Amino acid sequence: MPDYKSYPVWDAGTRWFHWVNFICVVGLSFIGLIILNGDFFQPATQTKINLKVVHVWIGYVFALNLLWRMVWAFFGNRHARWRAILPGGRGYFAAVRSYIGSFIKGSPEFYIGHNPVGKIAILLLMLALIVQAVTGLVLAGTDVFYPPLGGYFADWIAADGVTPADILPYAPELYNEAAYQSMRAFRKPFITVHLYNFYVLSGLIFLHVFAVVMSEIKGEGDIISAMFSGRKISEQQPKDQVREKTNE
């Protein structure tokens, strides 16, 4: 009979981040695609503004949640910390080769935390999420004049005699036309990066889900359920546990 053992892995802070991030990404993607395809949906101006406002508020939750995860990587359990989730370190490339070889053979090595290849995916996902959050905060200021930069952009484009606090989206009568066009030129690279990074992020998420499903099929330790329970179950000896005992 297989001797299955249960191993604690994802603490509550990590699990909460994962599912809040999932909900935010789904919501932001759905609303963002409606905004992006405005020519098809043809929403009224106020509807368009409302969509952008909701997009921004979800974006705030998304950005704060991401910031929380970056801070938690200094304080969480050993599987949540930076050194456990980012690639690198002594013997890392040998571990990557070993893991890939075991995966190809149909019996992937069991890791309690992220496996060596998974760490590369985590790095790429984190970078894409950070880029999306930063560019989104800039665009929140240019589109609906929301914090943290909305006041700066409102002051930039306000027409003579107009108080920046009174600036509204889609109200050209309140804008200095030359300043507005200058602001839009400044905004352009941020919207371009935000758009194309969304495609990159979507691709990375697809690969992440595909890899998780394939790992589950090959029996790699209840990866999906662990994000609910915080524990992995396997009959294999964990490779990362072996490495830790070796280094003691």
TrEMBL record:
<dbReference type="Pfam" id="PF01292">
    <property type="entry name" value="Ni_hydr_CYTB"/>
</dbReference>
<dbReference type="GO" id="GO:0005506">
    <property type="term" value="F:iron ion binding"/>
</dbReference>
<dbReference type="GO" id="GO:0022904">
    <property type="term" value="P:respiratory electron transport chain"/>
</dbReference>
<dbReference type="GO" id="GO:0020037">
    <property type="term" value="F:heme binding"/>
</dbReference>
<feature type="transmembrane region" description="Helical">
    <location>
        <begin position="16"/>
        <end position="36"/>
    </location>
</feature>
<feature type="transmembrane region" description="Helical">
    <location>
        <begin position="56"/>
        <end position="75"/>
    </location>
</feature>
<dbReference type="GO" id="GO:0005886">
    <property type="term" value="C:plasma membrane"/>
</dbReference>
<feature type="transmembrane region" description="Helical">
    <location>
        <begin position="120"/>
        <end position="140"/>
    </location>
</feature>
<keyword id="KW-1133">Transmembrane helix</keyword>
<dbReference type="InterPro" id="IPR051542">
    <property type="entry name" value="Hydrogenase_cytochrome"/>
</dbReference>
<keyword id="KW-0349">Heme</keyword>
<keyword id="KW-0479">Metal-binding</keyword>
<keyword id="KW-0249">Electron transport</keyword>
<keyword id="KW-0812">Transmembrane</keyword>
<comment type="similarity">
    <text>Belongs to the HupC/HyaC/HydC family.</text>
</comment>
<keyword id="KW-0408">Iron</keyword>
<keyword id="KW-1003">Cell membrane</keyword>
<dbReference type="InterPro" id="IPR016174">
    <property type="entry name" value="Di-haem_cyt_TM"/>
</dbReference>
<protein>
    <submittedName>
        <fullName>Cytochrome b561</fullName>
    </submittedName>
</protein>
<keyword id="KW-0472">Membrane</keyword>
<feature type="transmembrane region" description="Helical">
    <location>
        <begin position="196"/>
        <end position="217"/>
    </location>
</feature>
<dbReference type="InterPro" id="IPR000516">
    <property type="entry name" value="Ni-dep_Hydgase_cyt-B"/>
</dbReference>
<dbReference type="GO" id="GO:0009055">
    <property type="term" value="F:electron transfer activity"/>
</dbReference>
<dbReference type="InterPro" id="IPR011577">
    <property type="entry name" value="Cyt_b561_bac/Ni-Hgenase"/>
</dbReference>
<keyword id="KW-0813">Transport</keyword>
<feature type="domain" description="Cytochrome b561 bacterial/Ni-hydrogenase">
    <location>
        <begin position="9"/>
        <end position="230"/>
    </location>
</feature>
